[in-house]
Amino acid sequence: MLAGFAAFLDLYSTQPLLPMLARTFHASNFAVSLTVTAPTIAVALAAPYVGRLADRLGLRAVIVGSAFALASATLLAATATSLPILIGWRFAQGMVTPGLFASTIAYIHEEWPPSRTGRATAAYVSGTVIGGVTGRLLGGLMAADVSWQSSFVFLSIIGFATAAALWWQLPQERRRGPGAAGDHGSWRAHLRHPQLLATYAVGFCMLCTQVAMFTYVPFLLAAPPFSLSTAALGSIFLTYLLGAAVTPFAGRGIDAFGHRAVLVGALGLCSMGSLLTLVRSLPVIALGLSIFATGVFFAQASSSSHVAHHAEHDRALAIGIYATAYYIGGSVGGAVPAALWQAGGWPACIAFIISVEAAMLTIAWKFWKPTDRETADLRFQIAD
């Protein structure tokens, strides 16, 4: 949970700051949205290589080292004197984030039996939710009360404290020590695996919808008739807390019913929440965002567990490739709705989000097998 918290504390922390950054740097909505897109592009580029490194050096070493590197990059982002420099430091943050994302999910699947990996992954996802809420909420409050630079300083302090806690408390993996990863897995093998390919596509679609929703809804809420302040925009990410509270139930659902069943239910929640944001009422929009976020976190737990479940060797590499597809999707979700916003406003953005959700459902329904979990449990019991 701490590793998940650290991974997502900073990644989307500029979302509530976007209207402020647009005013400060006299920049367009698209230009300031690059502070969200840049780190996701960096994660997409770096994730497979960091995953391969974790398979070689050891998962714990990469998790702890990445946490310290991320906190350092966050502190340096506060020194930016222009929007391009800020975007550059945001890119640097993204480069070190995969060490937390890919390595932690691989760590779970190395240390837990298959019958309980769903619950463990859901706990990790809950940590990512809490980290994402903390970064957006505290970042927005600090920016509104002091300056946008202070938000990065404050988040870096939290990041260093979290990294120290990981260094102190995270046990060395027991099943495979540093440097013990074999050559069984490879890029070619993972990219030819039909279950993994489908999961990579699901990950692409998933983050695409999440980033599209939460990058552009601040522009909706900052404009009339809502006219929310920067601090209030940061508080909209409290809608994530419902997801943080109920995501552990998704883990139990994965262990009991399989990945596909949970994903289908999650996408139903996402679609319902998306449609509710079209209602011109702040309480209804908040409810819609809460339902949407809950669906996203259920889907994230399902797909993250699914890719690690099917990668029998070099799991960190497989999850790194998944992270590449995931964050390329996030980059698309951060950029494409800018044109849609100009053409058709918020309804056009929602139409895009629901279309991507429909594609995700089609892929998972066709390629994910509903009985894989039971087969894995039987193999584990026989091995024991």
In round numbers, the mean pLDDT is 83
Structural class comes to mainly alpha
**Corresponding CATH superfamily:** MFS general substrate transporter like domains
Number of domains: 1
CATH fold group: Growth Hormone, Chain: A
Largest sheet: none
Which range best describes the helical content: under 10%, 10-25%, 25-40%, 40-55%, 55-70% or over 70%? over 70%
The CATH architecture term is Up-down Bundle
Distance between the termini: 27 Å
CATH structural class: Mainly Alpha
**Tally of helical segments:** 16
C-alpha-based Rg, rounded: 20 Å
Report on the structure:
It contains 16 helices and no strands. It is globular. It is mainly α and 384 residues long. It has one domain: Growth Hormone, Chain: A (Up-down Bundle), CATH 1.20.1250.20. Residues 177-185 and 371-384 have low confidence and may be disordered. The relative contact order is 0.17.
Jot down its keywords.
384 residues, mainly alpha, Growth Hormone, Chain: A, 0% strand, disordered C terminus
